[in-house]
Structures are given as structure tokens and as C-alpha cells.
Amino acid sequence: MSKRRDGREAAVQYLYQLDIHGDGQADLRADFWAIRETPGKARAFAEELIAGVTAHRAELDERITRFAKNFTLARINVVDRNILRLAIYEMFYNLDVPPVVAINEAIEVAKKFGGEDSGKFVNGLLDKVKTEVTRPLRDARPHSKSDAGGPAPAAI
């Protein structure tokens, strides 16, 4: 498994836990990392994704709600909801990942952790969301040292 895939899976697992338990537990993150062994680079990537999703959660949820016809956010399976949050965050904010890669990764994570139809559901919703991506779908901007503050957000 690639370090990035492992990081994405860890991020989804943590976001799931956060969704279930809320942010009230002071040791939530420490407890998570004590259980979920993740090598350095994968963990750093997961932490980056967790921070991004957490910071932009309201925007991500608004976009999910807008594209999930006949579904309220609460009605979407918790695993699928967090996979969608992560993928949409990557599509719009993580500019060193091409949007189509974010979509494909989300589908694979959904197949592994979600229900029987999760892969199809995630694919269908993200296919609609990608119509609003304003950068090339198959290109990434390489991460450079001048990006110390993190990637600039694409229009969301």
C-alpha cells in the first residue's frame, strides 16, 4: 500500500471517530494514534488531511449536501460522509493531488471501508462535484518549499 493511501485511510478512520465521538475528548487524537500504527510520512500526510478537512468542514458539508440529491448529510453513511469530505478537500485544497486521483482514491477507500454500494455512491457524488473544480482535473501543482503555509485554496 502506498504511503498516501495509508495516510488517506488513517485520515478517514480518524474523521469517522471524530464524527461519532465529537471533538470533546481531549485525548481523542493521541488515543487514535496509539491504536493506529502509521509510519512517519503516511501519518504526516494523514495529519495534513485531518487538519484540512476539519478546517473546511462546513464548506465541505455544504457541497456534499448540495450535490447529494434527496439525502440530508445525517442520512449519508458516516464512513461515506467522511470519505466524501476528504476527497472534496483534496479536490479543492490539496493542489499537489490531481482531482481525478482524489476521486479514484476515495472510491477505493469506500470499497474497502464502506458498504456494498459505497464505491458507486462516492463515485457518483464526486463525479458531480468535479464539475465545479476550476483547475485541470489530471494535473497537480508540485509541492515546493515556498508552499510552507500550505496550498492556496481553489475556488470553493
Describe the structure.
The chain is mostly helical and 156 residues long. The chain has a single domain, classed as N-utilizing Substance Protein B Homolog, Chain A (Orthogonal Bundle). Helices cover 62% and strands 0% of the residues. The chain is built from seven helices and no strands. The chain is globular. The N and C termini lie far apart (31 Å).
Summarize the structure.
The chain is mainly alpha-helical and 156 residues long.
Structural descriptors:
disordered C terminus; mainly alpha; 156 residues
Topology of helices and strands:
Blueprint: H1 3-21, H2 28-35, H3 40-55, H4 57-67, H5 78-93, H6 99-113, H7 118-129
Helix pairs in contact: 1-3, 1-5, 3-5, 4-5, 5-6, 5-7, 6-7
Subunit organisation of the chains = single chain
Number of strands: 0
State the separation between the terminal residues, measured CA to CA.
31 Å
Order of H and E elements: HHHHHHH
The CATH topology corresponds to N-utilizing Substance Protein B Homolog, Chain A
